[in-house]
Amino acid sequence: MKYLLIPLLCCLAVSKVTLQSNYSKSKQMGLTDNIFFNMMMFAVVGIFFSPWLIFGNVPIDTYFFGAITGILSVCFQLTYLFAFSKGKPVLVTTLNNFSMFIPIAVSCLIFGEPFGISRLVALILATASILLITLKKDDSKSHNPSSNLWILFTFFAFLTNGLLTANQKVYANLASDFNVFGFVASSYVTATILSLIVFIVTLKKSDEKFEFNKKALISAGGSGLFLGLFQCVNTYAASVIDGAILYSAYNCGSTVLFALVRIIFFGEKLSKRQLAGVFLGVCSIFFM
Question: Mind listing the pLDDT tens digit for each residue in 195-209?
């Protein structure tokens, strides 16, 4: 029964990322727009789960690990949204899902989960996938620095998402009193406060013109709802499912599902080289 959590995680993640990527493509986003969107998304989760901080008996280590997750979430979502706005969402999510290498490494090195030949195969396939997706033919566009910005943003999203997930894994295994709702609440209250501070500072110092956007508010609210549900299920799943199984199955399933949604419903076009890269990426995640 616990493995039914994996398809649920896939559906929640794809729903959130679909809303997020569609918004990023709807306008030429600036830094303040990006921060505002993420602030609203975090606020939905933080407000919904804040009663657990007020009325729940939340231990100090839950606050600590939750705050770390909140800080990393701000960094991750900021770079992830910019990556979506600059690149193709299917390619961005495929590369970002390789962030599972980080929590799996933590699972193996700290908690003694097994490492086998299959993971070496996965690493080789992941390398081939990254090369197919990111390397371009030798043409004029290849030398345009702005055309490669999505790769830079995706790398930082990959790094912060991997550290975020590793932090959840450590908390789930070391917490003195495992508290899913308290963890999610402390994470996103921290993320909301930090985003608000960054938004105010950026708004004062930036020359960008910022206008309140109802579409952003609706998209951020929906993304926040799916994000909050995802984090609750994911934090619990990390405590009852082997990390090698959980991260491999979830990332593989969500990559395939999101690719199908983008190609079938949104007409996203990928070259044969990029499709091969996505396919190898899915195979890599499967072997992890």
Answer: 999 999 988 887 777
**CA angle at residue 231 from 228 to 235, to 5 degrees?**
150
Measure CA 111 to chain center.
23
pTM here is: 0.83
Instruction: Spell out the alpha helix ranges (H) of 50-148.
Output: 51-55, 60-86, 89-96, 101-111, 117-134
End-to-end CA distance of the chain: 22
Q: Does the pLDDT of residue 124 top 80, yes or no?
A: yes
Per DSSP, which regions of the chain are E strands?
Answer: none
Instruction: Give residue 140's pLDDT band: very low, low, confident or very high (50, 70, 90).
Output: very low
If you average pLDDT over every residue of the chain, what do you get? Answer: 84
Show the tokens assigned to 109. 């090195």
What single letter denotes the amino acid at residue 173?
A: N
C-alpha to C-alpha distance for 126 and 162, rounded to whole angstroms:
15
Helix, strand, coil in percent for the chain, rounding step 5: 85, 0, 15
- Residue 153 structure tokens: 């943003």
Cα separation, 274 vs 259, in Å, equals 12
The mean pLDDT of 98-107, rounded to a whole number, is 83
Output the six-digit token pair for 26: 């709807």
| Full domain range(s) for residue 64 | 2-287
Number of structural domains in the chain: 1
